[in-house]
Design a protein that fits this description.
By secondary structure, the chain is α/β, with parallel strands linked by helices. It is 42% helix and 9% strand. The termini are far apart.
């Protein structure tokens, strides 16, 4: 059984909007909690919306958070991130850190995308509720919505979405193929650019939960059952590529890791790759210290070990319960984040030390940023010792990878 917490779009009429989907989920044995937010109250804004969602989550764990339309700005601001197992965006506005809902429209190019879709379909650009929102909703469902509509206050539209990174959980984007407010190709592009996620497209308009509740419920349940939160393949492949480019005459060179040479860093990477494979398999850590010397075939061995690591974390059982790494026992899903963090940061360290470039997907960088941000609060700063250096300031428009590097105590501008 899964708990779904359902955030409504503009207006906040959660019980009415999610009624049919909630019934379908409950009929299948899940728990569905539509969130009701009085968005017509100018005293409430994004922080208050997030607090209301936190109250709805309560002490429940493994919650799938579903955000419709404007609800996409509420999802990243909740406090109970550790209670989530996934986030689903349904025809949603996907924000960047610090962006306001009012600025989102121009920043994403929504107006031009909607105008192009209207022109292609022979529709007017004049706003009409019937044409934009109700065109595919059955008459009896429309009747049940009467009196529930309420316009949102202006308050949230000027407020920044206050978050640094998305939680390290699966992010899914579900798009209505006939959404006339946020055209499908527009949503697919925004999901790719802002989350690094390939959106799923299904039949239906902007209020697809009202027009196709059975299909929406089934999609949500499929996301909940999807298993692993992310794949280590991209980061592992990039690290293997960088390692293959390391020359023997560079092994004694310094690295961004204090007091570590390239040789020391490579030994560490070999060890962590094996250790996190044991972690994924819920096996005891490898016995004995790592060898002092690198084997002659270390590049090939590392590539093979990285493939093994990726395969181990693709097993859904790897993400269940708790496991151990580096003498620390914690939730397996959290250790997967640590493993990804190690691959990305030490891949960058190795690349910079040997004059190479390193790239990371937006999704991988954001997942690791969530972990680094959690290690950068006043309460956790002491635990950074030996893991990260002091935070390095980066520009406000820095790339996702550079934001991660700064939080992890790396200077993105470093060469060599």
């Amino acid at each position: 059984m899964t708990t779904f917490v359902l955030i409504p779009g503009a207006g906040g009429a959660g019980e009415v909007y999610w009624r049919e989907v909630a019934a379908e989920l409950e009929r299948r044995g899940d728990t569905a909690i539509p969130v009701e937010i009085a968005e017509d109250d100018p005293a409430l804004g994004l922080p208050e919306y997030a607090a209301i969602v936190d109250a709805a989550i309560g002490d429940r764990d493994e919650v799938v958070l579903v955000a419709q339309s404007l609800g996409g700005f509420t999802a990243p601001m909740i406090g109970k991130r550790d209670r989530l197992s996934a986030i689903v965006f349904l025809n949603a506005m996907i924000p960047l850190p610090g962006e306001t809902p009012g600025a989102w429209w121009a920043a994403t190019g929504q107006e031009a995308a909607q105008a192009a879709a209207n022109a292609a379909a022979g529709r007017s650009n004049e706003f009409d509720v019937e044409e934009v929102f109700l065109h595919d909703i059955p008459e009896h469902v429309r009747a049940s919505m009467l009196g529930a509509d309420r316009g949102p206050a202006e308050t949230p539209f000027g407020q920044p979405c206050a978050f640094e990174a998305w939680p390290p959980v699966p992010l899914h984007v579900l798009v209505g193929a006939d959404d006339r407010l946020f055209p499908a190709d527009f949503q697919v592009r925004v999901a790719r650019e802002r989350l690094g996620v390939a959106a799923d497209v299904m039949p239906g308009g902007h209020l697809v939960a009202k027009s196709r509740p059975v299909e929406v419920a089934e999609r949500l349940r499929a996301y909940a059952a999807a298993g692993p939160g992310f794949d280590l393949a991209d980061a592992a492949a990039e690290l293997a590529r960088v390692a293959a480019g390391v020359r023997d005459d560079q092994l004694a060179d310094p690295t961004p890791c204090q007091d570590w040479t390239v040789r020391t860093l490579v030994r560490h990477i070999l060890g962590l790759t094996t250790a996190f494979t044991h972690t994924a398999r819920h096996e005891p850590p490898p016995a004995g210290p790592a060898p002092d010397e690198l084997p002659a075939d270390w590049r090939t061995r590392l590539a093979t070990d990285l493939d093994t690591l990726v395969a181990a974390w693709r097993d859904p059982a790897a993400w269940v319960g708790e496991s151990e790494a580096g003498g620390v026992r914690m939730a397996s899903a959290d250790l997967a984040v640590v493993a990804l963090d190690e691959l990305v940061l030490h891949g960058w360290d190795l690349a910079r030390a040997t004059g190479q470039e390193f790239t990371a997907t937006t999704t991988d960088a954001e997942i690791c940023t969530g972990f680094a941000a959690a290690m950068s609060t006043p309460e956790t700063v002491a635990s950074r010792q030996g893991l990260y250096g002091p935070v390095v300031a980066v520009p406000s428009d820095a790339s996702p990878l550079d934001r991660l590097l700064g939080l992890a105590g790396r200077d993105p501008a470093r060469r060599g």
